[in-house]
Amino acid sequence: VIQGCDASILISTKPGSRELAEKEAEEGFDTVHKAKALVESKCPGAVSCSDILAIAARDFVHLAGGPYYQVKKGRWDGKFSKSTTVANNIPRANSTVDELLNLFASKGLSLQDMVVLSGAHTIGFAHCKQFVGRLYNYRGTKRPDPEMDPRLLKALRMSCPQFGGGAGVVAPFDVTTPFLFDHAYYGNLEGKLGLLASDQGLALDPRTGPVVRLLGKDKERFFEWFAVAMEKMGSVGVKRGRRHGERRRDCTVHVS
């Protein structure tokens, strides 16, 4: 994740350590741990946590209706995992297009890759805190984001009050087909139905808007480009050999 697809996101914080691991900044990897346990019972020490994580992501996309693509294997697991490195290495809910382009470029990913990978928001949910600013006080204006459909604004305000509530409430990134991996995400952005400011900005920016419009009309192209972009992202910061990585039996614990 931070240094590439090396499963560092699965490492647990060491007991008593003041340095939190990456996963403390995110939630939920039970499925990967269960898959790893099953693989270890059949082929001990043969498959890295990194490869299992990459394969699990592919299978989840496919089971939700998305493309089935080949996953390159042979990664080793990374040794570095700190929560303090997360914020500056992943897209934020209020990231500008410039910030997104710079972040993805730092990983060797293009503008097209960025827009295509953002399409993963065709499934999934966000907590109120990630978008509540758009509903009441967008960028300090004390008004809602004018680039949000009024019907969506009204519905989200009912679930997410400005103060004192909604901590456990989530809303789907894709308000039209939230459980289906399709290209509706892009059509939503054109209709001002993006949940996050970072998503909606893709439709508004003259550099990324044409890609949004193209993918909104062409599901097959989105699936094709998504598979290619996932392969590229899966090759970022790959660890090979003991000098740079390890093969963990338990994905939550370093080998040494």
Structure commentary:
- It is a single chain.
- The chain has 256 residues and is mostly helical.
- Helix content is 39%, strand content 4%.
- A two-stranded antiparallel sheet has the order 1-4. A two-stranded antiparallel ribbon has the order 2-3.
- It contains ten helices and four strands.
- The radius of gyration is 19 Å and the shape is globular.
- It has helices spanning 30-42, 49-63, 97-106, 111-118, 132-136, 150-159, 184-190, 197-204, 209-217, 219-233, and strands spanning 77-78, 125-127, 170-172, 245-246.
- It starts with 29 loop residues before the first helix and ends in a 10-residue tail after the last strand.
- Helix 1 packs across helix 2.
- Mean pLDDT is 87; it is low at 24-28.
Give a concise summary.
This protein is mainly alpha-helical.
Topology:
Elements: H1 30-42, H2 49-63, E1 77-78, H3 97-106, H4 111-118, E2 125-127, H5 132-136, H6 150-159, E3 170-172, H7 184-190, H8 197-204, H9 209-217, H10 219-233, E4 245-246
Antiparallel strand pairs: 1-4, 2-3
